[in-house]
Design goal:
Blueprint lengths: L2 H4 L1 H32 L14 H8 L3 H12 L2 E5 L2 E4 L2 H8 L6 E2 L21 H15 L7 H21 L5 E5 H18 L5 H4 L6 H15 L3 H7 L2 H7 L8 H18 L11 H7 L4 H31 L2 H16 L9 H5 L2 H13 L5 E6 L5 E3 L2 E3 L4 E5 H4 L3 H4 L16 H12 L12 H18 E5 L7 E4 L3 E4 L2 E6 L2
Parallel strand pairs: 2-8
Antiparallel strand pairs: 1-2, 3-5, 4-12, 5-8, 6-7, 9-12, 10-11
Length: 509
Amino acid sequence: MSPWTDSPMFASQSSLAIATVFVAFIVWRLIVVVISWHWLRKFPGPSLASFSYLWGYFAMRSGRMHHILAEEQGKYGKIMRIGPNELLVYDPQTLWHINNVRSEYGRGDWYASIQFDPYGHSVLSEPDTAKHDKRKAQIGSGYAGKGAVNLEQKVDSQIAVLVDVLRKNCAGTDGRTSIVDFGRLIRFFQVDLVTLVGSGEPWGDLVSETDHFDFISIADNVVPFLHSFMMIPLFRDFFASTFFLSIAGPKPTDEKGMGRFLGIIKGIVEKRFSESTHRETAEGCMLDEWIKHGLTRRECELELAVQVPAGSETSTTAIRGVLLHLFTAPAIYRRLQEEISAGIREGRISSPITNEEAKRLPYLQAVIHEGIRMVPPAITGFPKKVPAGGDTVCGAFVPAGTGVFVNLWSLLRDREAFGADADVFRPERFLEGDAAARARLLRHVDLAFGHGRWMCPGKTLAWLELNKIFVELLRNFDFQVANPESPWRCRGYSSFLIDDFWVQVAERR
């Protein structure tokens, strides 16, 4: 040890240096807080949110984010402050404006926290608008079901597996009925469908009713943590930093957790790229199309890594939301089942139903839109950054650099748009009034899938599922919620976590 470092003078100087850095950091943070507070001081919101990110963290951590945001915006209006430099809106005009294809708004820093592969950006998290647009164009044909990708056939095949699994469950009891965790079955169904369309092979969770690669358990553990800490920029940046990832980040060689998931994705892509002759058949998948359109091996890994969680959890939420409200509304349930039965009798519904046939069933379409309205695939998030020069939002000037979040829960329950009974499941609202009024409601609900430049690339697949799955379930089975007092367990973060959705299933004779 050097005599200089052992000296009291050196220790004193070191302590002084550390104290100086600490004080400088505190002063800098105070300056940032004061400036941020000053910029957005005219926007109402919870007092803590005006100078601290802790309000957003605790609201998210509670698992009641949808209710808390609705309660707060009930007090403060369609635009409110949720952080030192963040606003939250549920105004459709604002969302159409900031998300249109020519908008100068970019993605906010929040997107860095939804890198499901933390070592690179997918189309979902890419902050550079030009890179996002290029990647989206490359993957677009696969998501649209073009080329050799037959999305409708793949959806039909997986719904057939789901129907077969339910039949086996019924046959395994008294030959007619069974009680199943329907929420979990739908997750198995969705994971298998997404992996089938993505890489050409389903993981096989649904057939065996098993979470083979622990994806569901990983998601359930990660989501509350990830969604909560992404509300605090300091933590968000730390967990996404090269320093943290080099020490504690997931690795494809890990035997469990996110690392194992990344290893599975890496193996799938490596196998496809190592094939001596690239396969091209009528049973093609999105990975085939991405390779054809120039995606590198690494880019394919990034897109598949985001496709499984983003593509499975959002559609799963939509399907479960429709089913819960349908199962607990007997009159609506009967009316939809009668529409389906009449369509079958009159030859307007094939087996399985086609996407075009489903579009011509007005009550089915109303039920789907109303279900998405009641339980949207996402609650909040996806903020855009106000461009240079600032902009006018909800009639007020907002300075450049401000993050503008969307509150989909309140947007889709807005009484100005949907009426005094906006909190009630009533599909008939989409069949009432003139064509212009109905179109306005549909356009509101369509915001659940994004808009313009930031439209969800999986929208085509999601609607194929929604148009088919309810018809095939209701033509083959009767359903009843097993526990009316507590039909499911629902927690709201940036999106929903739903489980314990137990349903009695009876095969229709």
